[in-house]
Input
Amino acid sequence: MDDAIPGLSPAPGPAVFANLHHLSHHAAWRHQLEMLLESTGEGIYGINQSGRCIFINRAGADLIGFDPDEVLGRNMHYLIHHAHPDGSNYQVEQCPIFHAFQEGRGVRVESEVLWRRDGSSFPAEYTSYPIRDAGQIVGAVVTFADITERKRAESALRANQAELERRVSERTAALSQANARLQQSHGALQRLSAHLQQVREDERAHIAREIHDELGASLTALQFDLNWLRPRLAHDAALESKLDDMMSVTGQALGAVRRILTDLRPGVLDHLGLWAAVEWQLQEMQARSGVRCTLAMHDAGPERRLGRSAEIAVYRIVQEVLTNIARHAQASEVQVDVTGCPSAITLRVRDNGLGMQVPAQPTSFGLLGMFERARALGGELQLDSAPGAGTTVTLRVPDSSR
Output
C-alpha cells in the first residue's frame, strides 16, 4: 500500500539525488558522510518530498526500534506516528516537517511524542530543515532526540517546586498565625501597660489626698500650735530657742510634704491645665539647676486642652525628659516648643547638652516608659541625638478634645 503523504508531489526520480549518488561513488566522501552520521548521539534522517526516508543513522534507527535498512524508503510521518505532547495524532498538514517543505524554512519542536516499532512512545524534540538542490526544495533533514530523562527531571523539578511552594505556604501560614498571636499578646501587653499606668496615677492621686488630708493637716495644726506657744515662752530663752528649732523642722516637713504632693499629683495640672504645668516644671528646673528654660506656644494656647489621661501622660513624659536632662545632659539651655494643628499637638524638647548615641531599641525603663505612654495615647515619640550635638525629643499626640 502506498504511504506517500497526500498533497505532496510523487517521489523524485534518481536524478534528483544524482549529486548525492555521484558523491557516494567516491569512497572518501562516503566515509566522511558515514562518520558524520554515526558519530552523533542524536537521530538523523533525511526524507524526500514524498516524506520517504532516504537515509537514517544508527542512533535514529535505534531510537525508533528499527534497523536502518528497514526504514529506508518508508514514510516517516506514518512510521513514527508524530503526535502532540498529549499523545493525540495530528494530520500530516499540521506536521512541522510538512511546513518545512511548504514554506522552505527550518523549524524546531521542543516537545512532541514519537512512536517506536513496538508501539511504545517517547517524548522527543526535533529540528527540520529543507534540503535544497539548485534552488529547489527536494527534501528535508531531521534531527531528533529522546528527552525522556529531561522530561522526568522537569517533572521532578515541578514536583519539588510544588512541594517547596506547599511548604512555604504552610510556613507562611504558621508564621502569620504566630505573628497574629504575637500581635494579640503585644496588644494585651500594651493594654496592660496603659492600665497599670492609670492604676499608678490613681494610686498616686489617692496617696496625695491621704498625705494632704492627714499628714499635711497635722503638720499645719502643729505649726499653729507652735506659733500659739511662742508668746507664752517669751521669758524663757532656752524654751524659745527650742521652739524655734521645732518650728524650723515643722516648716521643712511641710516643704517636703508639698514636694512629695507635687511629684505625686501636681495641683497646677488639675487646676490650671497641662501647659501651665509644663511651664511650672520648667520654672522649677531653672530654679533648681540654673539651666535656662523657655517655653514657646504656637497655635496651642491654654484653652487647648487634652483629655485628663492624655494630659497626665504628656506631663509625665515631659517630667522624665527634664529629669534626664538634669541628670545626664550637662546642658545650659532647654527649649520647649508646643505647636498645634487641627488634629494633633506636637511638643518638642531641645537641649544643648552632651547628646548621646540613640539606641536602636530603648532599654532603660525611663525611655521605655516614655515610648509606652506615647503609644498608649495613640501618638508617637521620636528621639534625635548625637554625641556632642544635644538631644531633641519630639512627641506628637492626637488632639482628643476636638
Notes: The longest strand covers residues 121-133. Confidence is low (pLDDT under 50) at residues 4-18. The chain has twelve helices and ten strands. Residues 148-229 form the longest helix (82 residues).
